[in-house]
Amino acid sequence: MQLNITTDKKYIISGIILIFFIVLIIKLFMLQIVEQSYKLSASNNVLRYIPQYPARGLIYDRKGNLIVYNQAAYDLMVVKNQVKAFDTTELAKILEIPPEQIKDGFIQIKKVKGYSPYKPSIFIKQISSKIYAVLQEKLYQFPGFEVHPRTLRSYPHKIAGHLLGYVGEVDDEIISKNPYYQLGDYIGINGLEKSYEKELRGVKGVSIYMVDVHNRIKGSYENGLYDSTAVVGKDIICGIDANLQEYGEKLMANKIGSIVAIEPKTGEVLAMVSSPSYDPELLVGRDRTTNYRLLQNDTLKPIFNRALMALYPPGSTFKIVNGLVGMQEGVVYPTTRYGCAGGYPIGRGVGCHNHPSPLSFTQAIQMSCNTYFCYVFRSIIDKPIFGSVENGFSDWKKHVESFGFGKKLGIDLPNELRGIVPSVNFYDRYFRKGGWNSLTIISLSIGQGELGTTPLQMANLAAVIANRGYYYSPHVVKEVKGTDGIDPKFTEKHYTTIDSTYFNYVVEGMDMAVNGGFGGTALIAALPKIRVCGKTGTAQNPHGADHSVFIAFAPKDDPKIAIAVYVENAGFGATWAAPIASLMIEKYLTDSIARPDLEKLMFEGKLLDRHANKK
User: Fold this and answer.
1) Dihedral, CA of residue 80, residue 82, residue 87 and residue 89, to nearest 10
2) How far is CA 102 from CA 87, 93, 142, 169, 179, in A?
3) E strands, 88-169, where?
4) CA–CA separation, 281 vs 167, rounded Å?
5) pLDDT, averaged across the chain
6) Domain boundaries, given as residue ranges, for the chain
7) What number is the average pLDDT over the span 214-229?
8) Three-class secondary structure of residue 108 per DSSP
9) Dihedral over alpha carbons 302, 307, 308, 313 (to 10 degrees)
């Protein structure tokens, strides 16, 4: 009996050993024959992975003009343990840098996260093609140094810096959030370069080389079997008209403010000017950090995108919104007339300029009567059916926000602000609950008070009127090559809460303001063969001279451009904003200017001095 038990144990132990060897053989087979990737992983200590950076996609304007392209650049790399004695002065001369920078370079690379003396480190970034041509011939004199090709952005027109954005090196925060990026990679930091980073960047490739114990390349690994080719980024076509953009930047030279022009039928942005601006070439290459700091410290804030981020009172341009809300709520009609004796007479009053009286609805828009729209605004808020000022104001707010105010319009650019449309809660906190009424907030009737709008929202208002009641979300890009099309949200119509029939009366009033003869506030914006519809605004500014504001669209019956111009500290809307908008419309629709004297006046206007004096 004892013998049988011993025999059984013998068989059990033998079976376990046999199974172990079978599993081991299968595992070795998988590792050595089936899974070559394990072999590659095990060989990491004798392989060097050199990334192949793709060229970023090109950017074109709506007419096919190239506005952003790539130029060759090179990173000088160094493998510290391969460096031998070399002529520091000679290398510095070739690189066009002080000799001290060479010595400092070896100190700095040791501070970089992940530094290894056996692997390449960036020694000098973004060497120009000119310097590289000289260095290439003498590189053999500097063992341990090598060159990796890169590309840098270049701008043939030197325009639209705020809109296009710029490219910069990734930091640890970006790397931690997105494993695609590694130290030394570049990414879109602002503007289109940021919004369309995934489309523009392409896909990195990699070349794998075998290296010896000294990290010297001995040849391609597995004849390039595991290499991958870089995929060039996708090209982008913008709705921007480069000629119009450049013209707008010239008109706004020596002025502070913004121009935004939109194609009403599509929502495509035709021009977006923020002034003062800057040459986008300043934020390219090795001097980018220094130049950015200089721009950032400039008191005129040239890197601040006023088109999307500056909040201004809309001024009298907002009267057309109040007029439309009044018509929708049935408190004003085309035939409604109010008299004006120099201002709104109730409470502390609201002043008005001289004009004929009384006025109908369209005439009130034509002559920009403050008194008329004070009556309209209070009739909305105090409409009996609402039962309270809070309900009336909430209804007004709902209508206003349907025009795109107080919210982001969703443009395909970063940093867009929502703007401000005050709420019941705001006034309850400010005045206490029950401590305010329609007269307390009467300044909203003429686009003042607590309203805050961006120039983009103002241009969108012009597009809403041009379309008689709806808009498309403004967008810069009209096509990404190699894709099915733009984001569907940019093809969706956004309707206001106002019946479309009421817009015709506003259009007539805006037409009369420009083309109606005596009493029109924007006669300077008229064009001989193009029917321009516009509305001036003079926005009060507690910090200095009033702002000059104008919105318009043209042609009247087939609108192809809607525009807003905002010039800080420039006075009446008709003085600067209206003529600038009119010239922009003429330039876009006719590609010529028939009023050289007016153009010269706008080009030579230097309002920065006025701004400085007020400051």
Assistant:
1) -20
2) 10, 10, 12, 21, 32
3) 121-128, 145-154, 167-169
4) 11
5) 91
6) 2-34, 47-238, 242-277+304-614
7) 81
8) helix
9) 110
Angle 271-276-279 (CA atoms, 0-180°, nearest 5)? 75
- pLDDT tens digits for range 342-382: 999 998 889 999 899 999 999 999 999 999 999 999 999 99
Q: Which of 22-31, 168-177, 202-211, 555-564 has the lowest mean pLDDT?
A: 22-31
H helices of 221-360, in order, are 242-251, 288-297, 306-309, 319-328
Between the alpha carbon of residue 381 and those of residues 339, 378, 601, the distances in Å are 20, 5, 43
Beta strands in 185-230 (DSSP E): 186-188, 205-211, 217-220
Mean pLDDT of 270-276: 97
- Extract the tokens encoding 311: 């909040």
- What CATH fold (topology level) applies to the domain 242-277+304-614? Beta-lactamase (3.40.710)
Task: Catalogue the E-assigned strands of 65-160.
Answer: 66-78, 121-128, 145-154
Beta bridge partners of 381: none
Distance CA 615, CA 603 (A): 23
Q: Of 43-47, 142-146, 328-332, where does mean pLDDT reach its minimum?
A: 43-47
Distance from the first to the final alpha carbon of the chain? 111
Q: How far is the C-alpha of 347 from the C-alpha of 571, rounded, in Å?
A: 26
Digit-coded pLDDT (tens) for 551-588: 999 999 999 999 999 999 998 999 999 999 999 999 99
- pLDDT tens digits along 155-194: 999 999 999 999 998 988 898 899 899 888 899 999 999 9
Please state the separation of Cα 195 from the chain's center in Å: 8
pTM: 0.88
Instruction: Report the alpha-carbon distance of residue 374 to residue 442 in Å, rounded.
Output: 7
Tokens of 453: 């709008």
Homologous superfamily of 47-238 in CATH? Penicillin-binding protein 2a (Domain 2) (3.90.1310.10)
Other CB atoms closer than 10 Å to residue 365's CB: what's the count? 29
Query: 386-429, pLDDT tens digit by residue?
Result: 999 999 999 999 999 999 999 999 999 999 999 999 999 999 99
Task: Kindly state the DSSP code that residue 406 receives in the 8-state scheme.
Answer: T
Contact 553, 461 (CB under 8 A): no
Report which of 397, 309, 323, 405 is spatially closest to residue 363, judged by C-alpha positions: 323
| Closest to 306 in 3D by CA, of 259, 252, 261 | 259
- 148 bridge partner residues: 75
| Axis-axis angle for helices 129-138, 88-95 (nearest 10) | 150
- What span, in angstroms and rounded, lies between the C-alpha atoms of 554 and 466? 8
Q: What three-state secondary structure class fits 186? A: strand
**Nearest alpha carbon to residue 149 among 193, 235, 207:** 207
Q: Is 161 helix (H, G, I), strand (E, B) or coil?
A: helix
